[in-house]
Design brief:
It is built from 13 helices and 29 strands. The protein is an alpha+beta fold. It has 3 domains: 3-145, Sandwich (Jelly Rolls); 162-265, no CATH class; 282-480, Rossmann fold.
Length: 485
């Protein structure tokens, strides 16, 4: 199979290789039970008997007719014949498809031959599911290693490491001048500039030049850029979103235009440093230190689902929850598992509806609550705090040993929507802290990054983080758990 080779870091880089096209497998939905609230179906994929050393990406899509927001669990037969839950998803009804992330499953289990899955609706989860007997589920595999597996570099905290790894850039040409952008730091030594997929390296003196912290494109450069008119068009068009003040912005198309820069920084980090949660989350830290099993439930919105992370295309970085779990496994001997019922459009009011059917039955050791981006469309800081507190209280009433991490999200693009009221959410969450509750303050770190970088370089230019900020989410939570340096 043809392979593409990518260079991952400045020196002594591990090789990133992945198949150019994903392998595609199909399976019929069998033994379907469409009893309202009790949907179940079986899938069997015929995989080649030859094993794969690594999987850069594995994902399954299942066409379904959905109403409400049912939580669907995916099970596979364990070594002893019992079914083991390996993935979960809360699909949006309007999409008509359930998507399961299976990269972790394939890399841990190395399945081959007949692979049998069972999909079930979590009892009591709000919504109904139906399946067209003619529809077929699709499993896609990309064989090879991926940058998302080089955790040592990708999870090194942006505030602590002297190596800047894959800082995103998207130069802008203003008033007829050369397209340019500002780096987070002045580089000290060699610089590597690549496309966002990490497949092409751009050449200094041909594609760009750097003076201090300014990176400027040269005439004829192959590096993508935008003009001011493209970034902020005068009217509607493909990929354009309307702003709160009647203007327009180029939206998620910026993700495919972003390039990345890696270098050693010349100056120290001068922004907020996320602290370890001293005196907090003692049970979680003890389990990790002792190598005991740790179950994490992540309840949040599309950011926690993994929207805008590259996931299914190079460089195949997963959502921050899965990235966090990979990081914990690499740093400890604990068998860490993740249940993630997060969904696009979810807010804290929706999260309250998912507790009894999804969160409480899982009996999590650690519950990550990550809302705020959609609450910002009209929920005051006081009401946001009240909703989060109610979530904590209800989960703790059923599972007194559960500990909590409350995630203060990154800011949205203030050119798209005002920062109020979400600029008060971090403080609202911090007022809830206790020995069992800690706040992951992504807000403060991301705000500092935005001091010099535009939203079009750190996000989808609206309200979802790109791979770099996805990594920051995981880094901040790791710091809370004592892995912040």
């Amino acid at each position: 199979m043809k392979a593409i080779v990518y260079l991952l870091c400045l020196t002594a880089a591990p090789v990133f290789s992945a198949s150019a096209e994903p392998e595609r497998f199909e399976a019929k939905l069998e033994n379907v039970d469409v009893t309202p609230g009790q949907f179940a179906a079986e899938l069997v994929f015929a995989l080649p008997d030859a094993g794969r050393e690594a999987i850069a990406y594995a994902g399954m899509t299942v066409p379904l007719k959905l109403a409400g927001y049912p939580f669907l669990q995916l099970q596979v037969a364990g070594d002893d014949g019992t079914e083991v839950a390996v993935a979960g998803t809360t699909p949006n009804a309007g999409h008509g498809v359930a998507t399961f992330s299976l990269t972790d499953v394939f890399n841990q289990r190395q399945p081959r031959g007949a692979l049998k899955f069972r999909i079930t609706q979590a009892p009591g989860s709000p919504g109904t599911v139906e399946a067209d007997p003619k529809s077929r589920a699709v499993l896609r595999l990309v064989a090879g290693s991926a940058p998302g597996q080089d955790l040592e570099k990708l999870l090194a905290p942006v505030w602590a490491s002297d190596q800047v790894v894959d800082e995103p850039i998207l130069p802008v040409a203003r008033a007829g001048g050369a397209a340019e952008t500002t780096l987070l730091f002045e580089p000290d030594g060699d610089v590597v500039v690549r496309d966002g997929a990490l497949g092409r390296t751009y050449q200094p003196g041909v594609d760009y030049e750097i003076e201090g912290r300014k990176l400027k494109l040269l005439p004829g450069s192959s590096i993508p850029f935008l003009t001011e008119a493209e970034l902020q068009p005068s009217g509607k068009g493909p990929g354009v979103v309307e702003t709160h003040d009647g203007g327009f912005l180029l939206g998620a198309e910026v993700l495919d235009k972003q390039s990345v820069v890696s270098y050693r920084r010349a100056a120290p980090w001068d922004g907020p440093v996320p602290p370890a949660s001293v005196g907090k989350l003692a049970a979680t830290k003890r389990k990790l230190a002792a190598g005991e099993p740790l179950k994490i439930v992540l309840l949040g919105d599309s950011i926690s689902f993994g929207a805008a992370a590259s996931r299914s295309k190079p460089p195949y970085l997963p959502g921050w929850g899965e990235l966090l779990v990979r990081g914990l496994r690499a740093r400890t001997s604990s068998p860490v598992t993740l249940v993630n019922p997060s969904r696009g459009g979810g807010n804290s009011a929706w999260g309250l509806k998912m507790l009894d059917s999804v969160v409480v039955p899982e009996k999590p050791d650690l519950c990550l609550i990550a809302f705020g981006m959609n609450d910002a469309n009209g929920t005051s800081a006081e009401n946001f705090r009240a909703n989060i507190k109610r979530m904590i209280d209800e989960v703790a009433a059923a599972n007194p040993d559960t500990e909590f991490v409350l995630v203060a999200p990154m800011p949205r693009n203030e050119k798209w929507r005002p920062l109020q009221p979400m600029d008060g959410y971090a403080d609202a969450l911090k007022s809830l802290e206790s020995d069992k509750i800690a706040v992951a303050d992504v807000w403060s770190v991301a705000r500092h990054l935005r001091r010099d970088k535009g939203a079009h370089e750190l996000t989808d230019n609206i309200n979802h983080p790109n791979d770099f900020v996805v990594r920051v989410y995981a880094q901040v939570v790791l710091a809370l758990l004592g892995f912040g340096s």
